[in-house]
Specification:
Helix content is 42%, strand content 17%. By secondary structure, the protein is an alpha/beta fold. It has a seven-stranded parallel beta sheet, with helices on both faces. Strands 12-9-14 form a three-stranded mixed beta sheet. A two-stranded parallel sheet has the order 7-10. The chain has a domain at 4-184 and 235-265 and 305-314: Rossmann fold (3-Layer(aba) Sandwich). The structure holds uridine-diphosphate-N-acetylglucosamine (UD1). Uridine-diphosphate-N-acetylglucosamine is lined by residues 88, 126, 128, 151, 180, 199-201, 204, 217-219, 230, 232, 271, 294, 296-297, 301.
């Protein structure tokens, strides 16, 4: 019998790609989402890529009774928890919405799991928990210090999960700290759907290439980096998705109670390198201009992926070229 996985936020960017990888690996899946940052047609696209429809429930994790009933009736072997609000700027404007949605949702989910005797969780965390990193590459034992409400919700959720691991001897959790997921499924059927003006670099560059925006605004060219622009660790979303499948196997095989790992490539690219790589992938000129630094940004942020390689028996397979090619295929399909 295949394992049953409940995926919260399964219609979102990383959730949808993970659902596809889970289906390919033979898992039985129940996808839940409240569509606050996705579209119903993503479910049709997931079905197209998987070759069959994935069972789905429209559910908001803030509804404690609904998630409790869902977990009790489905009785998943594991939960992969993506559902959360994720915009840094919005979190500064609306902190209460972020604390309510991300924390209440996670508490309700953990309580529902506890009620139903479901003891395995894979959690979607972020490199944002490292705040302003003291040095790069960042290892998992680096100091934690989130610097905005979004980041603080991620750090709080990590701590809540670790407390549950401590309190419940049979509870296992894998906490995956994503660096900069980007790209799209190579089929062009699923990808990132930014609400309004994209905050993140790759979807913004894709919209400039598509002629939807006049130019990329590069936030700062006076950072202490080789070309003066910010350096980040961009990781293909399909690699991120596969790491979740690897995390389920690692929890089962090792029996380890708690696993916290970085999901990155270990290689940093500058904003200018991203613009140039996208230009090559799209075969189109991408106009850009240097503007002021964005408040809260750091010069560089990239992972030491050593622990993830060892603990998950996984590594990122795709490089920047594939990220740009796949993001561009997806963007063209949206036009
Ligand atoms: C951002 C968030 C981070 C979150 C992550 C999710 C901030 C400060 N950080 O990370 O908490 O976990 O997204 O994916 O928002 N850039 C431009 N022009 C643009 C957009 C970005 O020059 O229009 C630059 C940024 O200054 C940065 C790089 O591109 O150097 C990447 O930016 P972005 O994609 O927003 O990711 P992060 O800032 O690393």
């Amino acid at each position: 019998m295949s394992k049953k996985i409940l995926v919260t936020g399964g219609a979102g960017f990383i959730g949808s790609h993970t659902v596809v990888e889970l289906a390919a690996a033979g898992y039985e899946i129940l996808l839940i989402d409240n569509f606050s940052n996705s579209e119903h047609w993503i479910l049709d696209r997931i079905a197209k890529v998987c070759g069959n429809r994935i069972p789905f429930k429209h559910l908001d994790l803030r509804d404690a009774n609904a998630i409790s009933a869902c977990v009790s009736s489905y009785r998943p072997d594991s939960v992969i928890h993506f559902a959360a609000l994720k915009s840094v700027g919005e979190s500064v404007q609306q902190p209460l919405a972020y604390y309510e949605n991300n924390l209440t949702g996670t508490l309700n989910l953990l309580q529902a799991m506890s009620n139903a005797g479901c003891n395995q969780l894979v959690f979607s965390s972020s490199a944002t928990v490292y705040g302003v990193p003291e040095r790069c590459p960042i290892t998992e034992d680096a100091p934690l210090d989130a610097v905005n409400p979004y980041g603080r919700t991620k750090l709080m959720m990590e701590n809540v999960i670790r407390d549950v691991v401590t309190a419940q001897p049979d509870f296992q959790a894998a906490i995956l700290r994503y660096f900069n997921p980007a790209g799209a499924h190579p089929s062009g059927e699923i990808g990132e759907l930014p609400l309004g003006v994209p905050n993140n670099l790759v979807p913004f560059v894709a919209q400039v290439a598509a002629g939807l925006r006049p130019q990329v605004r590069i936030f700062g060219n006076d950072y202490p980096t080789p070309d003066g622009t910010g350096v980040r660790d961009y990781i293909h979303v399909c690699d991120v998705a596969k790491a979740h499948v690897a995390a389920l196997a690692a929890l089962d095989d090792s029996g380890v109670r708690e696993l916290t790992v970085n999901l990155g490539t270990g290689r940093g690219y500058s904003v200018l390198e991203i613009v140039h790589a996208f230009q090559t992938a799209a075969g189109l000129p991408i106009p850009y201009a240097f503007v002021e630094r964005r408040p809260g940004d750091v010069a560089e942020c990239y992972a030491d992926p050593t622990l993830s390689h060892r603990a998950l028996s996984w590594h990122a397979e795709h490089g920047l070229e594939r990220i740009c090619e796949d993001a561009w295929r997806w963007q063209r399909g949206l036009r």
